[in-house]
Design brief:
Layout: E1 2-7, H1 15-25, E2 29-34, H2 37-49, E3 54-58, H3 64-77, E4 79-85, H4 100-130
Parallel strand pairs: 1-2, 1-4, 2-3
Helix pairs in contact: 3-4
Length: 131
């Protein structure tokens, strides 16, 4: 079964859910990963109510080892064809009021999180593309 991985699916009313519903209706299994177990469970339950197959993994994007282990487990169990990176470590502050150091810190955190996911899954995606 084809699968789509949504990294940082967000709330049950957000963009990640809309993406999941679209692909779920097209027969994809939805895989999600995030640091918040409670949000992931709610996301899973909402998709299950719509008869969309899905699974989730809990991993903090800043923990490279846990992210890598989770992704390797997903890859061993599922044929991931598409990855959506919907993760963002956001600040609720008005960006205009932030100090440059705070903005740079946020950009650095988001970039590090992205790379922690890209490095372990990229070889898998390249193999799928070569088929």
């Amino acid at each position: 079964m084809k699968s789509i991985l949504i990294i940082g699916p967000g709330s049950v009313n957000g963009l990640g859910m809309e993406i999941a519903k679209i692909f779920g209706r097209q027969g994809y299994k939805i895989l999600t990963i995030s640091r918040n177990n409670e949000k992931l469970f709610k996301f899973k339950r909402k998709l299950s109510e719509k008869n969309i197959l899905n699974e989730y993994w809990v991993a903090n994007s800043k923990d490279k080892q846990v992210v890598s282990q989770s992704l390797l487990e997903m890859i061993s169990l599922h044929e991931i064809e598409l990855v959506i990176f919907n993760l963002s470590l956001r600040r609720d502050d008005d960006i205009i009021k932030l100090e440059p150091e705070e903005v740079l810190s946020s950009i650095e955190n988001n970039s590090t999180s992205l790379l922690n996911f890209v490095h372990p899954i990229l070889p898998h995606l390249k193999k799928i593309r070569e088929r």
